[in-house]
Amino acid sequence: MSARASFWLAWSLWALSVGLAALSLLLLVLNLSHPDVHVYDYWLENTLSAVLFSTVGAIVASRRAENPVGWLFCLLGLTFSIGHFSSQYAIHAQLAQPDLLPAGGALAWISSWILPPIIGLQVFSFLLFPTGRLPSSRWIWLACLTVAFVVAGVISSAFAFGANAGLGPVQNPLGIEGFLDVYDAVLLVSSLLYVAVAYSLFVRLRRAGGVERQQIKWFAYAVVATVGGTTIAYSIPDTINTPLWFEWAGYALLIATTPAIPISIGIAILRYRLYDIDRIINRTLVYGALTITLVALYFGGIVVLQRVFVVLTGQKSTLAVVASTLLIAALFTPLRRRIQDFIDRRFYRRKYDAAKTLEAFSLKLRDETDLEQVNADLLLVVRATMQPKHVSLWLKPAERELKR
Fold first, then answer.
1. Is residue 314 predicted with pLDDT exceeding 90?
2. 59 near 270, Cβ under 8 Å?
3. Where are the domains of the chain?
4. pTM for this model (two decimals)
């Protein structure tokens, strides 16, 4: 396929995805005008996913047409938009204004089986990332299993009896008793697929070096952020009773981390600011640990000081909050330095040792007057920090010696 054809095909798929997403939001607004009508549960996640995956896919496919990950992202964004549009259309046609729009049952049926293709496209995208090829021929079994899962998932979900996920009372028009149990069993395979594809990336990381290693780091960072957001938004509230503010904060974190995977893969494949990932990971570790420590000290300080005030005065005091705030302000800089030093020593030992070596050399250089000794020390520092195969030092002769 020529570069021009790739460009037009990629951005045509993008336009179709974004157009369907816009129509979905229009239907959402119409559905919201009916207060008693169920609102599609996943409208925001689907909208963001459709726009993000299709946009990143179009950019990658138009510039790296030989890499199938870009085309898979284009299809993934289109699938998200189809699922969202069919869900909003079904709600509007069957609940908001019945009999106004045709084929409401058909769109509800499409919405019922759209999840397995989404999972399959995601697994294939991650399996082929970043090179566009399987890690090795031994991983062909995972590709075959993914295809089998999509086929079985589509068939079982297309005839699963009951309400569609996120659509409230809207039922699958072709639902048959017993198929729901089959669909639930098939969905269990999806977790195995994600575990297997994660292991394939771990295998790639062990064998990779240079550019490919940095690409996988971007993806791994995004996965950790996404899993963290999903855990806080869904897993924790479903397991234990949490306050309403925690649920809203978890949902906001989920939305904030939704762009992580498509954007990180786009950066990795296009190699835009590829080596910034080490700095991003370092800052995340430092400020994440710093935030957790300061929050613990803040609330712990409030609790302890409130008890002290109750013992001394018999009542609580707002001075506990003021004192805790001042304590946090005073501890911010020294804590950040200590945590930064610990992170550098624990996770970036080679860079830490190199920085310490350069720091010691700079201090020694202030008092050193022997040029030969400076030359020897400089060569030792270069060997210790950069570890080259060969190192030599050339000094430019003085100008007066050249004139002679």
1. no
2. yes
3. 3-207, 213-272, 288-347, 351-403
4. 0.75
